[in-house]
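Subject: Protein record for review, amino acid sequence with backbone structure tokens
Why sent: The fold of this protein is of interest and is recorded here as tokens.
Enclosed: The protein record, placed directly beneath this head.
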Amino acid sequence: MDKNNIKRPKILIVEDRRLTAEDLKETLEGFNYTVCGIAATSEMAIQLAEEKQPDLVLMDIVLKSKKDGIETAHYTRFHLDIPVIYLTAYANKEMLERAKSTDPSGYLIKPFKEQDLYFAIEITLHKHKMESGNKQRHSNNHSQLTEPKQDLTPQIQKISMQHSGNEKRHLFQAMNEIEQRLKNLLYVQAKGRYCQLALDLSQEPCFDLQISFQQLETYCKDSIFLKIHRSYLIIPERALYIKKKNTRDFELWLKGYSSNPISIPVGRSYLPELRNSHPEWFAY
């Protein structure tokens, strides 16, 4: 096969020092990568990332913009699903902790060896390729999402037997609101004294219920919803996979009918039960 016809990985450089960026560009092209752009600010980095869709971003942390490289990486990583390797002269603990929250693929301290950069890039590209394949398989398995059960008769009968007056009316109204929105419901989150429905609808992304999270859990957990966190109930049919967010925390990724996948936290105490009941969510 002609090497010229092989698709070369595209890399976006985010670096506010022009000479440093040009030197890095020359190094990457020597490794046979394509440099699809150089950005000196957060705004330019996001614009180029959206336009060029690089396979990887090499990110400096200190930029000539209000937002630094860590804030920029948060967008490119979680909204565009582009892996990030930090290249920085700064290595203090606070900055490292902030950087870890963006799920980086690497963190190289300047000056670094070209060989270390090459190895970091190759490992990142391979890992992301494998993860993307797993995500695609999960997405294909859920391309025809099963609609949640919409018959709330058992819940309504239970409420009818156990309550009366205003409390019964509020619970009936809440069940009705849930039933109307069930097709587009992603999850329920505790919000102060009450709870909120998160919906897969651009015109109505959320809806507040006038009942407590505990009340909703009492009547709907293990029938419509599954509890994965002390403050979250999910529609199991929406779940794609569970993965580590960082060294300590886990997150569940959900897919609706029209929105891009979104993530919500998973309580560590719920993980053993979830592994038993839904091992397929952990294949990722």
